[in-house]
Design goal:
By secondary structure, this protein is mainly α. It contains seven helices and three strands; from the N terminus they run H-E-H-H-E-E-H-H-H-H. It has a three-stranded antiparallel sheet.
Length: 187
């Protein structure tokens, strides 16, 4: 399983490819990317940024003073080492690439990823979800007699969610194979 800090690093590097950002903007964009159910705190973001600074994946710039505060605003930007690390992370196609949190972040940056890598990640994610779906459906049929109707409905709802995601992934894979999107690599 990918550590949360590594997932945050990947997301920060991906966002900083768009241009320099200050911590507040990074947090806001990361929270939008992570979705409504997973809020990223400053207590998670700033230690990750400090670690990335020490590893020279990003660097700080001091922006001009803002009218609201008297302190200069620190802006982060990706370094050449950060660009290389982002490319390396995005080219990994093992099991961590299709875990729940990591997949969402990687998918957000698929536009900068080679088609073969995209396909392998999508197929891996679909296989992982199909295995999960098969297991849950077996368990559901065994436990339906033992649980009340609300627990059964909750299980059914979970199955339907995974079935929808598997269909969505299958559609993406088919579209990718039939009409691959040309990816422009950034410098």
């Amino acid at each position: 399983m990918a550590r949360r800090a590594e997932t945050i690093e990947l997301a920060v590097l991906g966002l900083l490819h768009e241009g320099p950002m200050h911590g507040y903007e990074l947090r806001k964009r990361l929270n939008l990317m992570l979705g409504w159910g997973r809020v990223l705190s400053y207590g998670s973001l700033y230690p990750t940024l400090k670690k990335m600074l020490r590893a020279t994946l990003i660097e700080e710039e001091t922006a001009t003073l803002t009218p609201v505060t008297r302190r200069p605003r620190i802006v982060y930007k990706v370094t050449e080492a950060g660009h290389r690390e982002f490319e390396r992370l995005m080219s990994e196609v093992g099991p961590t690439a299709w875990e729940d949190d990591n997949f969402d972040i990687r998918f957000a940056f698929f536009g900068r990823t080679d088609m073969e890598i995209r396909l392998r990640v999508l197929e891996g994610r679909r296989t992982r979800l199909q295995e999960r779906l098969d297991r849950v459906q077996r368990e559901l049929s065994m436990t339906q007699k033992e649980v009340d109707r609300y627990a059964t409905e909750l299980q059914r709802h979970g199955v339907e969610q995974v079935e929808r995601e598997v269909r969505w992934l299958s559609d993406l894979i088919n579209a990718e194979r039939s009409d691959p999107i040309t990816v422009r690599k950034e410098p």
